[in-house]
Amino acid sequence: MRVLDATGTAPGGLRAYLDNAATTPVRAEAARAMLAVMGADAPARAGGTFANPSSVHRWGLAAAAAVAAARETLATRLGCAPADIVFTSGATEANHLAILGLCRARARAGRHVITARIEHNSVLSACAALAEDGGEVTALPVSARGLLSPDAVAAAVRPDTVLCAFAHVNNEVGSVQPVAAIAVALRRAAAAAGARVALHVDGVQALGKVPTPYAAWGVDLAAVSAHKLGGPKGVGALMARGVRLLPPVPGGSQEGGLRPGTENVPGIAGFAAALATSDAAGAERMRALKLRLVDGLHVALPALAVNGPDPAAEDAAPHIVNLAFDAVARVPAEVLLHALEAEGIACSAGSACSARAPRPSHVLAALGLPGARLRGSLRFSLGLETTAQEIDWAVARIPPALAALGRAALR
Question: Roughly how many angstroms between the first and final C-alpha of the chain, as a whole number?
Answer without folding.
Answer: 41
